[in-house]
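U., I forgot to send this yesterday:
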Amino acid sequence: MSAPKKVVLAYSGGLDTSIILKWLQTEYGCEVVTFTADLGQGEELEPARAKAELLGIAPENIFIEDVREEFVRDFVFPMFRANALYEGLYLLGTSIARPLISKRLVEIAREVGADAVAHGATGKGNDQVRFELSAYALNPEIKVIAPWRLWDLTSRTKLIEFAEANQIPIAKDKRGEAPFSVDANLLHTSSEGKALENPAEAAPDYVYQRTVNPEDAPDTPEFIEIAFEKGDAVAIDGVAMSPATILTKLNELGGKHGIGRLDFVENRFVGMKSRGIYETPGGTVLLEAHRGIEQITLDSGAGHLKDSLMPRYAELIYNGFWFSPEREMLQALIDKSQEHVTGTVRLKLYKGLATTVGRWSDHSLYSEAHVTFEEDAGAYDQKDAAGFIRLNALRLKLLATRNARVK
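Result:
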């Protein structure tokens, strides 16, 4: 790959991406543009601007954008329409943020005339795959630079030495090894590495940042109502809210009641297993509510088909294929299934659990007349079940007869 002339860097303002910024300048002699996304990680982002300026980036080459609404509306909500869980447990909080960051990197590169983008993901993880597959899907000609796969700064000591040699400010807490690494956005926090690497050891309490210990959560349950339109949450307790505002509110409620903790050993796309501690309070509440409204509004055939496809859909997101045709095909099917997923769900939040306790909808398929144990006034003729059972039993009876004959 020829040396890039202008690079758009996914920049957090932290030590690692500041080192990458300077490394790009010194290694390639190129112009660097920084992009910092506010995904709801809960950190003040203006210091990233000051840090970039300190490292010689012109103000017009510093992009800091609040993308929280786009993140929830165009990425999180479509994923939640599918009830997506990777390996049955993980709500894909890190995975779903990467395609949006890549999208903006590529768009900014086009706007400023850059010929490359760069990221700070390591060569051992999934994020390098997600960033790069997304970038190439959106611009097949773009160059992608992954410094962790290229440089010789292979230890914390070497990184610190490089920073000192290049006048990069180093916070006191960065001189020692961090006890674990954290990725955060509006959907979740992900903590892994160092103190968490041994899956036999319980995660220390200080790892958890968004949720109280369920044992310390309020002793009184809290009840909330979430309204849905076509599979997306639109209001909480009758108050209409934007997508990002809804997730923010659900994070507050879920975190207060200790909901959404997950200690998980997952299979990375690159082949190894890794242990992570995830907190997804609002997402856990939202998933329970969405399944609750689907229970009365989604036809059984459509619902069962959708559930059978969900693991594949979740795996595509986890592996970085958000912009693939197969994910878009599955999304079209999922969105079709949500046309009547409209109504309200009542949930009980208590000691780490979000539980559906009521659901109602003008689009409901639930019929008390058919299901009642009392007199149904002819809505359902129970005699019909005899023929239904005989037809379904026919092949089983034929199999049993054949097996008895050939023993």
